[in-house]
Amino acid sequence: MTRYIHSRLTSRQVPDLLQTILVAELIAPSQNLWLVSPWISDIPVIDNTANTFQALEPSWYRSKIRLSQVLASLTQQGTTVYVATRPDSHNNSFLETLRAKADSDYLRIYKVEELHSKGILTDTFYLAGSMNFTFNGITVNQETLSYETDPTVIAEQKLNFRVRWGGKGL
Predict the structure, then answer these.
(1) CA distance readout (Å), 79 to 30, 33, 43, 108
(2) CA proximity to 120, closest of 65, 77, 161
(3) Per residue in 56-70, pLDDT tens?
(4) CA distance linking residue 84 with residue 95, whole number of Å
(5) Domains (range + CATH), the chain
(6) Secondary structure class of 69 (helix, strand, coil)
(7) Which stretches of the chain score pLDDT less than 70?
(8) What is the pTM for the complete model shown?
(9) How far, in Å, are 12, 45, 69, 130 from residue 6 at the CA level?
(10) How do residues 77-95 score in pLDDT, each as one tens digit?
(11) DSSP letters along 78-108, please?
């Protein structure tokens, strides 16, 4: 099944989409998760201010849960997380925070000078489009996104991502 989400997403729709797909990933973790974005910030991606997601990660406080926390939790559950981004000082804070929290056995970071691709790929979905994983990317800019759940598309993209940024298995 293919679902498309096109431009003119409201500033609330993109964060809701990210929360939904990342919560689903925490419930049923993939073997690999690739996050590819030229610009990455430690953006809030799950709203746990009402303690709604305490069962997912009991150590989380009532707060907005940041991207580094989610990715670190996934590495601690055995998901190998691949992050591809540009070697730019803007990304360093996020990468340092992620390295400090994640299980290093399950974290791979690639810095690519000419990177322009953007998206998240897991065993169950592929989210791709024009959105960087920054505050402006998820809350300000109008973005064009494609959300794919077709197993054939996911398998094809896994092959592509494995060649570009490593990975194991399909």
Answers:
(1) 6, 7, 20, 11
(2) 161
(3) 888 888 999 999 999
(4) 10
(5) 2-165 (3.30.870.10)
(6) helix
(7) 1-12, 136-143, 167-170
(8) 0.89
(9) 14, 20, 28, 10
(10) 999 999 999 999 999 999 9
(11) T-EEEEEE-S-HHHHHHHHHHHHHS-GGGEE
